[in-house]
Design brief:
21 helices; 24 strands; single chain; four-stranded mixed sheet; alpha+beta; 560 residues; globular
């Protein structure tokens, strides 16, 4: 009886509760009287006038109703934190005429604009000297014009689209604010938003929102919510850096809003095939360079490098498409295949067309490897897939494994549908993927990644005691244990975030905020923060991949 469902309209993980219930929940203390929101597990509940029940949008219901009889009399609230935070309350005293000004000690404890947000301001065109001046004197009583605020949705439903409201700021409310969400790493992560006021809100709505203490940025409801446009934010407990200093806002431009193409690792036929080409280095003669990244379109420009044995870059250059192709030919199409010779001496040849030659020519695997620096060209991989050469024993094992390294397959495994013993006496299983394809894989190679599927298949086909299938009866238990023992992985991910952050800061200092390396490291850092929830890997260009420690790059990253 304490809950009711409401329509979801841009709530993004935020519901509402009566003020009286919140005060009672927090123990009727003085901080409880000041509170305007509470984070309960993974949702946020903000105070709303005129309600007697906790209101939850339908999308926030994660489990069905309990069928336990008799029904439980109580509901447990797993409260993570309540708002305002102490720092927010201290800052709010600067704007509340009924409160004493903060003490000198309290002012010293107020947080400056964080380093990430300062870098985003630099990306947006704000002069570094202007930022530094603000940082030096922001703690003066009349100068503080930034805060870290919790995001909530509008309990009045009256804030106009594209606007926000800052609670507890009284007569000091600005006409516009700069808003971003951490971790922020590039210009497009922050936006300038207009602040709602008496000009575009009803008196009743203003009075309701004005009761809330300082510490919240209130977003409007609607079908086109604003938080996702601010560095993929939501309202289930996300905090936003908000700045309303006039000098800082005046320096903000649209610079950095179009860095998407810089941060993306652009792809085309040159980068996909990992092309190599000869290039003369002054004093060192002709060296073979490998194309590792496309950095510009129209005209096309690329980064190319030579590598030492450990995979680290020895030399790096920027080149045009014409420089890459000058005097060089690359595989453009595969039109057939054949086996030449008998027994162990037999080799597979492919009928190839090269970009500077009209006639087709039979080439061996070794010939193709040499021309493409041992990186399988996309057209060869696609031909092998289309002809079903990777699903049977037509190709030699070494050739199959080489091509399979470059199969682009983002699909997830659905189940194991068959198994057999190959010509080498090893068990292979037929995997069905979410995109509908099926491929044969060595059982031993799949035991680490597909425990549940292998265990289910073995149980269904009574294989637990068969040779090669020993131990698979415990796979389901191991999987559960893996899920419950996340601590080592969590430490790894924390270290990965720290390394990506350090590399991002280094690139920012060396190249600036708009360089492709800076942006890629920033996005890698943000992607790393998602790894505990989603089993993903960082995708980095080769020259950045090897800047991570070996363990981290092997466990959590891959080369694009």
């Amino acid at each position: 009886d304490m809950f009711e469902l409401i329509d979801d309209c841009g709530h993004l993980g935020c519901g509402f509760l009566p003020k009286s219930f919140l005060v009672e929940l927090l123990g009727k203390s003085v901080p409880a009287q000041r509170a305007f929101a509470v984070q309960v597990r993974v949702i946020l509940l903000a105070v709303k006038d005129g309600i007697s029940k906790i209101q939850i949008p339908a999308s926030m219901i994660k489990v069905s109703k309990s069928k336990t009889q008799p029904l439980h009399e109580y509901v447990a609230f797993n409260v993570k934190q309540h708002f305002p935070w102490t720092n927010q309350w201290v800052t709010g005293r600067l704007f509340d005429p009924n409160e004493k000004d903060p003490t000198e000690k309290q002012l010293k404890e107020l947080n400056p604009i964080c380093d990430d947000t300062q870098r985003v301001l630099r990306c947006k065109g704000v002069d570094g000297d202007v930022i530094q001046r603000y940082m030096e004197d922001f703690k003066q009583l009349t100068r503080i014009k930034h805060a870290n605020l919790i995001g909530i949705c509008d309990p009045t439903g009256n804030i106009p689209s594209g606007h926000v409201f800052i609670t507890g700021i009284g007569d000091y409310h600005p006409s516009k604010v700069f808003v971003t969400r951490n971790p922020c790493t590039e210009g497009k992560d922050g936006v300038i938003v207009e602040v709602a006021s008496q000009r575009n809100m009803s008196e009743k709505a203003l009075q309701s929102l004005s009761k809330l203490g300082f510490g919240a940025i209130v977003f409007p409801l609607g079908d086109d919510p604003l938080p996702p446009k601010i560095n993929d934010g939501d309202l289930d407990g996300d905090a936003y850096d908000v700045i309303w200093d006039e000098e800082l806002l005046e320096g903000i431009s649209t610079i950095g809003d179009n860095d998407e193409s810089l941060g993306e690792v652009l792809s085309d036929d040159v980068t996909r095939d990992g092309m190599t080409f000869p290039h003369v280095i002054e004093g060192k003669g002709k060296k073979n360079f490998e194309v590792i990244q496309k950095i510009q379109e129209n005209p096309d420009r690329y980064v190319a490098a030579t590598f030492c044995n450990e995979g680290r870059i020895k030399a790096q250059i920027e080149v045009t498409r014409e420089q890459i192709f000058e005097g060089t030919a690359y595989l453009s199409k595969v039109v057939g295949h054949r086996s030449v010779g008998k027994g162990r001496k037999s080799v597979v040849e492919f009928k190839c067309q090269w970009d500077h030659c009209c006639e087709s020519k039979w080439e061996s695997e070794n010939d193709i490897r040499k021309r493409h620096l041992n990186i399988a060209p996309d057209v060869l991989v696609e031909y092998a897939q289309a002809e079903g050469l990777l699903d049977n024993s037509i190709l030699p094992e070494r050739l199959c494994k080489w091509l399979e390294l470059y199969v682009k397959n983002d699909a997830d495994i659905e189940k194991i549908v068959n198994h057999k013993t190959d010509v080498h006496g090893e068990i292979v299983v037929l995997c069905k993927w979410s995109d509908g394809t099926k491929t044969w894989k060595l059982l031993n190679d799949q035991k680490e990644d597909c425990k549940i599927e292998i265990g289910a298949y073995a149980k269904e086909n009574n294989l637990f005691n068969e040779p090669g299938w020993e131990g698979t009866e415990g796979f389901w238990l191991e999987e559960v244990q893996d899920l419950m023992c996340k601590q080592p992985r969590a430490r790894d991910i924390k270290l990965l975030m720290e390394k990506c952050h350090a590399r991002h800061v280094e690139a920012f200092k060396e190249f600036g905020g708009h360089h492709h390396d800076t942006i890629i490291w920033g996005r890698a850092r943000k992607k790393a923060t998602e790894m505990e929830k989603h089993d993903v890997r960082l995708k980095l260009p080769r020259h950045l991949y090897y800047k991570l420690p070996k363990t981290l790059r092997e466990n959590h990253a891959e080369i694009l």
